[in-house]
Amino acid sequence: MEGEGAATERQRRATASQVDQWAVQDHVFKIYGAFASIPRSAQSVILELQRDKHVEYLTRGLQQLGPSFVVLDANRPWLCYWILHSIALLGESVDDELEDNAIDFLSRCQMPHLATTYAAVNSLVTLGGNKALSSINRWMHDAGEIDVRACYTAISVASILNILDDELAKGVGNYILSCQTYEGGIAGEPGSEAHGGYTFCGLAAMILINQANRLDLASLIDWVAFRQGVECGFQGRTNKLVDGCYSFWQGGVFALLQRLPAFGGEGFGTSDVEVEWVSDSTSEGDDEDRDSSDDNEALHPEQDQEGHQSSSHSPESSTAVHIQHSRHNQLEPLFHTMALQQYIVLCSQEQEGGFRDKPGKARDYYHTCYCLSGLSVCQYSRSKNENSPPLPTSVLGPYSNLLEPIHPLYNVVSRQYHDAQDFFSKY
Ligand SMILES: CC(C)=CCC/C(C)=C/CC/C(C)=C/COP(=O)(O)OP(=O)(O)O
Ligand SMILES: [Zn+2]
């Protein structure tokens, strides 16, 4: 039996976390309230992405990595990837000197650790061009940690470099399957708690090895759908706080699911998953306007678009999210993409450049990368394929907020992914 001390401690922690959540909601709702109370003309200015400021902040960060990126530490390839990918999402590129420095540095640090190798390879793919791509040495190595992130980074790197084979994929499907929890999301290791970061990694890896249909996709969708709360952004796991970086880790899960043919998507080429879909069917047209707030209005924080009270991160519904087709047979996103854009632009964006976890926190490159990646996912969430630009109704704020589309399996900008694919299919 649990001792009185332990029970009291548990209750103290639960209360503290509830108080944290109320404090964050209070902060976020004040921002939305202030936004709703200003004239429309001023609202559209506030919804603008501060592109120039973001590029300035990012370029400064890259320059600060050192004149020739000389120090080798595990964070530098990540900083390179977060910054270069953010710049690419904004449709910009870096100057020749910075590019040369980055290539020289990244080609020297592709071995010691799988996750940093993923960051280095994605950075080089993002820089693109002969020099960057040919600097990648397509080695293999083993050992290192075992978890779902390691599975994903290994499989992602191998896939983008066109060296993925059965030997590397052996056992990966069974391992990831053993990490899907009773909640429906995927944990880092068997027996741990489902988390958005690992759910993205697990699902992406399963798609890359053609085994996504082995997961319980119905419960996975339920789990991820209920991670979007009244703050309009996503939390990483049940009963935790909203955070801008989950815009990609959780939003990216939807981007992956929506590309599967079983969900009306075009597939990923070799990995067209067939899923026997079981859903508690909802009458036609029920949800056709669920995510069509096309007038840039702030959502009332405690209401969904039909005006219902919504409970934050409510766990009680089962299979409440379904494949949605509007009257015109247009694929509807499986999450509230306008609400998420609102959280990213109004709560995560720093007017002076960069993005943060939540109001009150400082900006950083990690959150800048994953807020922008999540924003891109939202903007293209209704696009049938990456070549069809989104309608203005899918983009919150001015259309100039539109970012470059990403390839959701790797989180690199689509055009750079295709260039890399052409390059590595030649030898
Ligand atoms: C490819 C790649 C880089 C993958 C990384 C995936 C990722 C973000 C995993 C999350 C790890 C984790 C358990 C964070 C919880 O932190 P926390 O307790 O501080 O945050 P929380 O309260 O939001 O859960
Ligand atoms: Zn975060």
TrEMBL record:
One GO term describing the cellular component: protein farnesyltransferase complex
Keyword Zinc belongs to the record: yes
Positions of region (Disordered): 278-325
Catalytic function, reaction form: L-cysteinyl-[protein] + (2E,6E)-farnesyl diphosphate = S-(2E,6E)-farnesyl-L-cysteinyl-[protein] + diphosphate
Enzyme Commission numbers on file: 2.5.1.58
Record's compositionally biased regions (Acidic residues): 278-296
SUPFAM superfamilies: Terpenoid cyclases/Protein prenyltransferases
Molecular function in Gene Ontology: protein farnesyltransferase activity; zinc ion binding
Keywords: Metal-binding, Prenyltransferase, Repeat, Transferase, Zinc
Entries under CDD domains matching the protein: FTase
Subunit-structure text: Heterodimer of FTA and FTB.
Family: Belongs to the protein prenyltransferase subunit beta family.
Protein's job: Catalyzes the transfer of a farnesyl moiety from farnesyl diphosphate to a cysteine at the fourth position from the C-terminus of several proteins. The beta subunit is responsible for peptide-binding.
Listed name of the protein: Protein farnesyltransferase subunit beta
Organism: Linum tenue
Lineage: Eukaryota, Viridiplantae, Streptophyta, Embryophyta, Tracheophyta
